[in-house]
């Protein structure tokens, strides 16, 4: 029995085949999670965007199944977080087994007072469907299914595409091209660009099985289990009673042989027991790589997601980092397209997301080296860690079955105004806590006109989060009327027309932002902190906003 | 090198050495390797200081190169 039938999206004959020509502001190649997120973000900013996809459906097979808290928060900003969370399966407990014994278990459950959970598991096809639906609700975005890019050329002024459809080929031009066409990225190849890094010599069998079972909703990871000796196995729940099983096979395995149901069944029966009733929904054999492009920006062509960088699946750092790419890129591109920021701002997309990709690749490579040791001594140390972890807490910190995706902290970004750059003669007491420049804004329960969580009040545009009512109406109006406006979200006080006023219900906003009576935080459109002060100074806010948009101060007023 | 103490620090060097060799008595090479690895991990955690550990690793590796 199949729990899911892929939808077929309608191919429409494009008007360009009947002689009309079209020049677009932005074209996105690839309607996967990253391309769709970018399209929604652009369309929400009223920037017309055309998405080209060579297929006419969502992901075939479940593929990326773990969506991290940060991804859910980004989706909330994009208007499609709720269905993903509702349909998804929340989990926070992970168990690590070595041989037939439980080595230890961990709980990712974060501190209370956050809207979104640490992770939800959901098949990629469901995830994409919700994003496709959101795109359909936005007038500025158009997806063209069965439109395959077959040639790309670029110069300093524009990008030229040739697009193949079932009815023939046509030409398109655009100012900006966002390439989200996945790990094999045909567009990257057409432009003669490559990725650099490491290929891991191992193969994994990945199978989705449908079974009604009372197994708990937890991530179970085995090193060297009796039912699959000397290799690792991962079991993870998805929506609709579908379970993901991941068997390490070794480099010598024959992918075509291993994919056959008659070869998968005995593996699953050995694992689940003979009396468990299940059906195989989808299976695939994969190898993986930890690689990235040297640069994610090539003039007017911007690469995002798997097209730009690849990691192993351990840690759920593929799709989650790709959605963060889109989140980082779109507000910058929007400012550049509106001539409110120089093109140099797009170089910071490259700098910030290359740094994030390196962090993901590092974590992913380390996990891979632990899960699949490359030498006898590496295996010995791995086994020593696992043996010690049963009784000694310190060794559990060394067990690495994947370090799960957390948002990148852009600590070294040139867009930040570091705390020590703040010039202020008044008390500029040092900050403590996690909200350093470059961090993503922490959520907290609030009361106010737009709901009960802090994050929906931040993002979209620049926001100054202020504590106390020390900002005058004139200053608030001034910031709101700048060329790049900055809205004010004030914590505490009575409602006012010139700003959004929210209440710190449980005191967690002040605690998480280490705030006192006049503290201010400047937040970027992607909810990253870029500057903070102990007192409000409109000139300092404008300097920081200029810096965060690669502008000079005069440009933004 | 400043963090790693390489001056004599063992109260009874002969006893320690005897105990270390005794630890491996009657073990296969594979078992011995596992015991050594566990011992290194336990001691590394006890030491904690990353500078000490880095210097100890460098001192252990000194003069040993992979075969050509």
Mean pLDDT of chain B: 96
Helical fraction of chain A equals 25-40%
Which runs of chain B of at least 5 residues are low in confidence (pLDDT < 50)? Answer: none
Distance between the termini of chain B: 29 Å
CATH homology-level superfamily of the largest domain in chain A: FAD/NAD(P)-binding domain
What series of H and E elements makes up the topology of chain B?
Answer: HHH
What is the 3D shape of chain A?
Answer: globular
Cα-atom Rg of chain B, whole angstroms?
14 Å
Overall morphology of chain B: globular
What does this structure look like?
The complex is a heterodimer of chains A (557) and B (68). Chain A is of the alpha/beta class. Chain A has three domains: 22-89 and 117-196 and 290-369, FAD/NAD(P)-binding domain, CATH 3.50.50.60; 198-288, D-Amino Acid Oxidase, subunit A, domain 2 (D-Amino Acid Oxidase, Chain A, domain 2), CATH 3.30.9; 419-556, Glutaredoxin (3-Layer(aba) Sandwich). In chain A, 27% of the residues lie in helices and 26% in strands. Chain A has 14 helices and 24 strands. Chain A has helices spanning 33-44, 69-77, 81-87, 124-136, 186-190, 255-259, 261-272, 319-337, 344-371, 376-389, 393-396, 473-480, 508-512, 538-548, and strands at 23-29, 49-53, 66-68, 89-90, 93-98, 101-107, 119-121, 141-145, 148-154, 159-165, 168-179, 195-210, 219-223, 232-237, 242-248, 279-293, 297-298, 301-303, 309-310, 462-467, 486-491, 500-502, 520-523, 529-533. In chain A, the strands form four sheets. In chain A, strands 1, 2, 8, 9, 10, 11, 17 and 18 form an eight-stranded mixed sheet that branches. An eight-stranded mixed sheet of chain A has the order 6-5-13-14-15-12-16-19. In chain A, a hairpin with a 2-residue loop joins strand 10 and strand 11. In chain A, helix 1 runs parallel beside helix 8 (319-337). The longest helix of chain A has 28 residues, at 344-371. Chain A is globular and about 75 Å long. Chain B is mostly helical and 68 residues long. Chain B has a domain at 26-59. Helix content of chain B is 62%, strand content 0%. Chain B is built from three helices and no strands. Chain B has helices at 13-23, 29-47, 50-61. Chain B is globular, with a radius of gyration of 14 Å. The interface between A and B is small, with 13 and 8 residues.
């Amino acid at each position: 029995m199949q729990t899911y039938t892929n939808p077929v999206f309608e191919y429409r004959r494009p008007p360009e085949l009947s002689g009309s020509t079209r020049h677009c502001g932005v074209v996105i190649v690839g309607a996967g999670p990253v391309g769709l997120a970018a399209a929604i973000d652009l369309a929400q900013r009223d920037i017309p965007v055309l998405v080209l996809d060579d297929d006419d459906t969502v992901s075939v097979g479940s593929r990326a199944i773990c969506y991290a808290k940060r991804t859910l928060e980004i989706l909330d900003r994009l208007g499609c977080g709720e269905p993903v969370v509702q349909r998804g399966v929340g989990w926070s407990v992970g168990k690590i087994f070595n041989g037939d014994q439980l080595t230890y278990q961990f709980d990712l459950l974060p501190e209370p007072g956050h809207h979104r959970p640490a992770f939800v598991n959901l098949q990629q096809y469901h995830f994409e469907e919700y994003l496709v639906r959101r795109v359909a609700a936005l007038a500025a975005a158009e997806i063209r299914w069965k439109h395959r890019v077959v040639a790309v050329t670029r110069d300093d002024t524009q990008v030229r595409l040739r697009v193949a459809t079932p009815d023939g080929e046509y030409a398109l031009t655009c100012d900006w091209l966002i390439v989200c066409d996945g790990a094999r990225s045909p567009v990257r190849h057409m432009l003669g660009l490559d990725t650099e890094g490491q290929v891991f010599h191992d193969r994994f069998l990945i199978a989705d099985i449908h079974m009604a079972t009372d197994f708990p909703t937890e991530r179970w990871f085995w090193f060297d289990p009796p039912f699959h000796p000397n290799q690792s196995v991962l079991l993870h729940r998805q929506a609709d009673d579908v379970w993901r099983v991941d068997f390490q096979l070794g480099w010598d395995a024959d992918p075509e042989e291993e994919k056959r149901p008659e070869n998968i069944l005995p593996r699953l029966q050995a694992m689940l027991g003979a009396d468990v009733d299940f059906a195989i929904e989808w299976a695939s054999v994969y190898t993986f790589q930890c690689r990235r492009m040297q640069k994610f920006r090539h003039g007017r062509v911007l690469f995002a997601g798997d097209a730009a960088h690849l990691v192993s699946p351990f840690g759920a750092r593929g799709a989650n980092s790709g959605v963060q790419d889109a989140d980082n890129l779109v507000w910058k591109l929007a400012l550049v397209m509106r001539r409110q920021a120089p093109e140099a701002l797009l170089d910071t997309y490259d700098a910030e997301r290359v740094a994030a990709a390196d962090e993901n690749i590092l974590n992913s490579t380390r996990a891979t080296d632990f899960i699949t040791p490359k030498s006898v001594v590496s295996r010995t140390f791995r086994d020593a860690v696992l043996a010690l972890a049963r009784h000694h807490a310190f060794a559990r910190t060394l067990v690495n079955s994947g370090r799960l995706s957390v948002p990148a902290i852009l600590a070294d970004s040139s867009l930040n105004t570091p705390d020590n750059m703040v010039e202020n003669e008044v008390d500029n007491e040092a900050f403590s806590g996690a909200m350093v420049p470059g961090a993503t804004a922490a959520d907290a329960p609030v009361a106010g006109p737009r709901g009960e969580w802090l994050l929906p009040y931040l993002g979209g545009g620049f926001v100054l989060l202020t504590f106390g009512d020390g900002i005058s109406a004139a200053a608030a109006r001034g910031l709101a009327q700048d060329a790049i406006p900055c809205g004010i979200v004030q914590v505490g006080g009575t409602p006012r027309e010139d700003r959004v006023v929210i209440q710190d219900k449980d005191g967690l906003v002040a605690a998480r932002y280490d705030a006192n009576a006049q503290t201010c935080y400047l937040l970027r459109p992607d909810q990253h902190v870029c500057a903070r002060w102990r007192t409000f100074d409109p000139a300092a806010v404008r300097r920081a906003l200029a810096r965060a948009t690669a502008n000079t101060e005069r440009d933004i007023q | 090198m400043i963090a790693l103490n390489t001056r004599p620090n063992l109260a009874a060097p002969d006893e320690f050495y005897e105990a270390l060799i005794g630890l491996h008595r009657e073990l296969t090479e594979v078992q011995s390797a596992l015991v050594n690895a566990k011992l290194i991990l336990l001691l590394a955690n006890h030491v904690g200081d990353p500078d000490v550990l880095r210097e100890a690793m460098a001192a252990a590796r000194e003069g040993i190169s992979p075969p050509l």
